[in-house]
Amino acid sequence: MKKSLVLMVVAFCLLAGCEPVRHYNRIRAVGFTGEPVEVPTSKQGKIKPYGSVKLFGSKAEVTERYRVIAIMSVSGDPGDEADFIKAFLYRAADMDADAVVLDRSNSQAGGVAGGLFATAVSSYRAEAVKFEHDNK
Predict the structure, then answer these.
(1) pTM to 2 decimals?
(2) What is the C-alpha separation between 82 and 55, in angstroms, rounded?
(3) Distance, CA of 24 to CA of 91 (rounded, Å)
(4) Fold entry, domain 2-131
(5) Largest Cα–Cα distance of the chain, in whole Å?
(6) To 5 degrees, how large is the angle CA 91–CA 96–CA 101?
(7) pLDDT in tens, 11-23
(8) pLDDT in tens, 55-84
(9) Helix or strand or coil: residue 101?
(10) Are the beta carbons of 83 and 22 closer than 8 angstroms?
(11) Which one, of 131, 106, 105, 116, lies nearest residue 28 by Cα?
(12) How far, in Å, CA of 136 to CA of 127, rounded?
């Protein structure tokens, strides 16, 4: 029974494209360094961002010099903001970034999705950055 359950879970993940954290695959990213920003499924989430990727709420909080290696964005339910930030951290770790800098100036309530019930949609944006260490 356990063996068949494990096989079913593995098959589902292969078919459905499991993501390391919620919304990871919804993150849109564009790189500035020529390095790929799309991470192969086999490598997604292999690097945990805890202790390796810092989170900054704004550019003003960053005290070190840095260069932007990618811009990331996602749109969705405003109640999912924490999940979006977690997905940004995982995606940045997979791109070998040192930090994520949130761009709250762009976080806005967007339009309303049509249908019978109105749904609020917000956009979130962040920069994946590498710190520039002086070689003195």
Answers:
(1) 0.71
(2) 12
(3) 7
(4) Translation Initiation Factor IF3 (3.30.110)
(5) 63
(6) 60
(7) 444 444 566 677 7
(8) 999 999 999 999 999 999 998 888 888 899
(9) strand
(10) yes
(11) 106
(12) 27
